[in-house]
Amino acid sequence: MASDDDRSVTDYTLNQVQLERIEKILDSDLVRSGINSVLMIDMAGNIIAKGDNGKCNHDVYALAALASANFAAVDTMANIVGEDFSLLFHKGEHESIHFSKIWNEFLLISLFGKDVSLGLLRLKIAEAIEKIKSVWH
Amino acid sequence: MAFVNLKNKEVQAKVVFYGPGRGGKTTNLEYIYNKFRDRIKSDMVSIKTHGDRTLFFDFLPFDIGKIMGYDVKIQLYTVPGQVKYNATRRLVLKGVDGMVFVADSMVEQREKNLLSLKNLQENLTIYKKSIFKIPLVLQYNKRDLEKQGIPVMPLDMMEKDLNSQLKVPYFEASALAGDNVINTLKKIISLTMASLQNVLK
Ligand SMILES: Nc1nc2c(ncn2[C@@H]2O[C@H](COP(=O)(O)OP(=O)(O)O)[C@@H](O)[C@H]2O)c(=O)[nH]1
Ligand SMILES: [Mg+2]
To answer: What is the pTM of this model?
Structure first.
């Protein structure tokens, strides 16, 4: 990733229409499949897009900062052992969290309850990621 | 790498507090958090060791309201200052828009300030950023120690050591007492926002 010296802006650009398309994908593919809350963030910890079922009130900015740092640390560990980890999953008693990379630039963070099957969810997330990628083409 | 969301008219920018270990970076954020508690809706997040040293970073989102029609969120971070944590320090610098360098005024910390500033310059290079171009404010912290008879470096010595080439705004501060903490913050926010101006049209 190259960054510009003079202007501190992200290397990717997303216009309003693209953002709307992404939020629509998050909503129709993920929130409607039972995910409580989903965030698309960049690796600096900025929130790009989000969706939720209206029942979640987590501190999403803190989540984004921690998730990007956590993933960066995992990436660095992967480099050390010569691997590439593209997803992470933590299972909780009531709420679980799933992280997936979208290329190397973004991270999709999905929070869901125990009523959702992990298998189905993985499938939905993979589909959503493909759709999000196509927003750039 | 601030993110400008044209849809929600929101800007997220990242300001990182850098400097030698125990210089007062975390104390700066704690002061800001306590001072603006009613305005900051989230908790301050700290990833620290059992010995209360910063292990990864502290994080505090700071809403500054509307600028040029955009809702501006400044994400404040600190890095772990200890030399051994350079890998994590680098990670925190990713996408940084503005920096505060918190130098320790104690005489015995002179060398550590220099090393940390040099380390910052090197780490910015990794992200193709220049310490001479990024919005930067120097804070000479712990000035209050002088009153307790603990030797601190004179201002001109610190200026010569750290700011003779950079020539950036600086403040003499006490993060513990809160002296000039908010002025440091205001300055770096205004420099950072000025650097984003051509994006916020
Ligand atoms: N006297 C004095 N002590 C300070 C000041 N700022 C920080 N400290 C103390 O220095 C120690 C290290 O501060 P901390 O914020 O953890 O440093 P960091 O490693 O840069 O995050 C703590 O014991 C603070 O209370 C200051 O302005 N004056
Ligand atoms: Mg600290």
So the answer is: 0.90
DSSP string, A94-130: SEEEEEEEETTTEEEEEEEETTS-HHHHHHHHHHHHH
* HEC sequence for B135-193: CEEEEEECHHHHHHCCCECCHHHHHHHHHCCCCCCEEECECCCCECHHHHHHHHHHHHH
Give B-chain residues touching A5 at CB under 8 angstroms.
128-130, 133
For residues B113 and B161, the answer to whether their CB atoms sit within 8 Å is: yes
Nearest CA to ligand 1 atom 19: B22
At A11, the pLDDT band (50, 70, 90 cuts) reads low
Q: Which CATH number fits domain B3-200: 3.40.50.720, 1.20.82.10, 3.30.70.360, 3.40.50.300?
A: 3.40.50.300
pLDDT in tens, B10-22: 999 999 999 999 9
ipTM score of the complex?
0.80
Q: How far apart are the first and last CA of chain A?
A: 19
Give the CA angle between residues B173, B147, B160 to the nearest 5°: 50
Ligand 1 center to B51 CA (angstroms): 14
Polymer length of chain B: 201
Q: How far apart, in whole angstroms, are the C-alpha atoms of residue B41 and residue B85?
A: 30
Q: CA B167, B136, B76 angle in degrees (round to 5)?
A: 160
pLDDT at B77: 96
Ligand 1 centroid from CA B59, angstroms: 17
Q: Which of A2, A19, A47 is closest, CB to CB, to B128?
A: A2
Q: How many domains does chain A have?
A: 1
Beta strands B170-172; B136-141: pairing state: parallel
What's the pLDDT band for B42 if we cut at 50, 70, 90? confident
Residue type, A135: V
CATH number where A28 lies: 3.30.450.30
Whether the per-residue pLDDT at A25 is higher than 80: the answer is: yes
